From TrEMBL:
The keyword Membrane applies. It is found in: Cell membrane. This is DUF3817 domain-containing protein. The lineage of its organism: Bacteria, Pseudomonadati, Bacteroidota, Cytophagia, Cytophagales. It is a multi-pass membrane protein. The keyword Nucleotide-binding does not apply. PANTHER family: MEMBRANE PROTEIN, MEMBRANE PROTEIN-RELATED.
Length: 98
């Protein structure tokens, strides 16, 4: 899986999606309900790094695999929607075997 740009994209997409859900589902409530800002700060920085890495990898894979602009757009948009990277992995990033 790590021997191709698409494999790297799938792994980073999964990690970015998990960090997004953890950020909004756990650390944001901790910050605003219990005044615990440190977990949100740490996970927020990790999520930011993974988000930028995801965007860069989508652009790299789109160029490498000659994706259409539409497919590239949907892959980029997936990073902004909760569960979007998981959906993109299932619908956009899977290579069909013949």
């Amino acid at each position: 899986m790590l021997n191709s740009p698409l494999g790297w994209l799938r792994i980073v997409g999964f990690l970015e999606g998990c960090s997004y859900l953890l950020l909004f589902g756990i650390t944001m409530p901790l910050k605003y309900m219990y005044d615990l800002a440190k977990p949100n700060y740490i996970l927020g920085m990790l999520h930011g790094f993974l988000f930028i890495l995801y965007i860069a990898l989508v652009l790299w894979v789109a160029y490498y695999n000659k994706w259409s602009k539409t497919k590239t757009f949907w892959a980029l948009l997936a990073s902004l929607i909760p569960f979007g990277t998981f959906y993109a992995d299932k619908k956009l990033f899977r290579v069909t075997r013949s």
